[in-house]
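Marked as duplicate of an earlier ticket. Keeping the data here for the record.
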Amino acid sequence: MAKVILFKHYLIFTRMNQTFKANGWALIPLGVFLVVYLLTSIIVGDFYKVPITVAFVISSIVSIIISKGTLNERIEHFSKGAANPNIMLMVWIFILAGAFAQTAKSMGAVDATVNLALNILPDNLLIAGIFISACFISLSVGTSVGTIVALVPVAMGIAEKASLELPFMMAVVIGGAFFGDNLSFISDTTIAATKTQGCEMKDKFRVNSMIVLPVALIMCIIYIYIGLGVNVANSHIEVEWIKVIPYILVLGTAIAGMNVMLVLLLGMAASTIVGITTGSLNFFDCFGAMGEGIVGMGELSIITLLAGGMLELIRRGGGIQFIIDKLTNKVNSVRAAEFSIAGLVSFANLCTANNTIAVITIGPIAKSIADKFGIDSRKSASLLDTFSCFVQGIIPYGAQLLIASSLAKISPLSIIEYLYYPFLMGIAAILAIIFRYPRRYSVKEIK
């Protein structure tokens, strides 16, 4: 129900704000960000040279400078974008995630959970096990962010014990998280895609699964192969079962569909109780750990606010409308129409850093294109969902990469090269358009 309310809220929001005149110059701030952060980091070969916060400050200033209206009006629009309910919800999640993660770590929950995984899984299945766990959890809860928050600390511990690259393990979790985000019946993107295209969730799931399930199976094989070289010394260690309780509680309540903020609050409470009970922490140590975790999420919260403000000014300036016009004015075939839908939602996601908002923004346009060119609504819904998840899964300023890198204390750019699943998912979706797959949902003729 909460997800449906969220969908309706943003559908109203976007319908009220779709009349901005197309203007390619509005995209300049996004270009500035990509040059300052991404291109500069690649040129100097160091992803830590340019802090992402500085890149967003510079691009945000540019967005305010080139926007129309008085200075006060520009700042007001920027602030409204930063205060978008979805942005503020993410900030709350970041704060609670930081507090839970640090409290659980301080009282020994992470070490206990890692030891449990090492005892249950053979060394060569640790990587594949983390990926499958992320797939299962995200499919059950319908949120990639909640899955990442729950599994990243465990993946970090396994990476340390198994001498695996930390960015690689973060990418394993993120890939599995987007598998479920793309397929889950309770995912925001699924709800948005099916509602805007007018099809049933089960039908969209059927089309989607034909495209991405083979990719997930390929990734399992790849991770099993990579895991053949993993050897954890003294992997059979005694497990402190009581310290695993917070993570079992978090995973169980998440799978049950509980609100992610309530899940994190329960995790914090459980970590505090177990920590005090076992003598690992005292009452004030728990407060200190929570405070440390919250402060550790400060940079991530600032990035999220700056991105929300900048991307709102881009949208108001007509940047997204410009791309929509450019991608749709020369469509003349079913295949080209499907590529235009994919391109539109991909670029909208690039500009909004939110796959749900991208789907909602482009959904009505995609529906018009689908009707005009005879595209099956189940296929157009699948394209919207899959390409939005693909882009969201690889952009360094998306919530998923940001929260994973923040928890792991690494650069989000360092994760990108290991994001095998999102990239393969994107390739599979492109091939599905080229080869008109699944055939059953790709054979209608132009009207």
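See parent ticket for discussion. The chain has 22 helices and no strands.
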